[in-house]
Amino acid sequence: MKSITQTIAKTVPQQLAALPPTMFEVKKSTRTKMQRNYHVILGEDWHQYSVPYQYVGKQCEIEYTNTKVEVYCGTEIIAVHYRDRRKQGYSTFAAHMPEKQRKYLEQRGWDAAYFKKQAGKIGPNTQWAMEHILESKRLIEQTYYTCLGVIRLAKKYFPERLKAACTKARTTHRINYQTLSNILKNNMDRMESALQTELFTIQTHENIRGSDYYS
Questions:
Q1: Is 0.70 topped by the overall pTM?
Q2: What pLDDT, on a 0 to 100 scale, did the predictor assign at position 80?
């Protein structure tokens, strides 16, 4: 006769295994051709990811999840990026660039210190904005063209307006090239100063007595 312990052991299910430390992510894939600018486009986000320039023109497969993008040429994995959902944006590794382009960046002297110095000449809020942009990517070289674009905004709209735009953007805690460009394009940097001028300007009226009335 079987013992009660043996009977219970057969009827109670085995202990469940521990849950995995990370959530399961659905992996998707798509095929595309590597562009001449050594990037591939993930059509779901319309974001471009760099690949080694030697593979330009070849067919490849992109496998991606919510957090990661992997690019394959045949069975060889040639690039891995963190998923970036900015539409029309770029994720570029310096190691993927042609040697001439890398040397060009080096010759121009572009680095974090250079862009911080240029922004600091305009104002402290502009320097804050530049530092924020420089820290927005894991690979700092990916931010250089964005930083250059911000400097060019000062030439297009004048430094004082860029300084005002950065001041306004700082209150929203959201800073990137598109934010600054939109502020300047829509004259939002001028609205606050214009409002202050209107508030503190004494309007002329027949019932308002000037200083001469009391002399």
A1: no
A2: 96
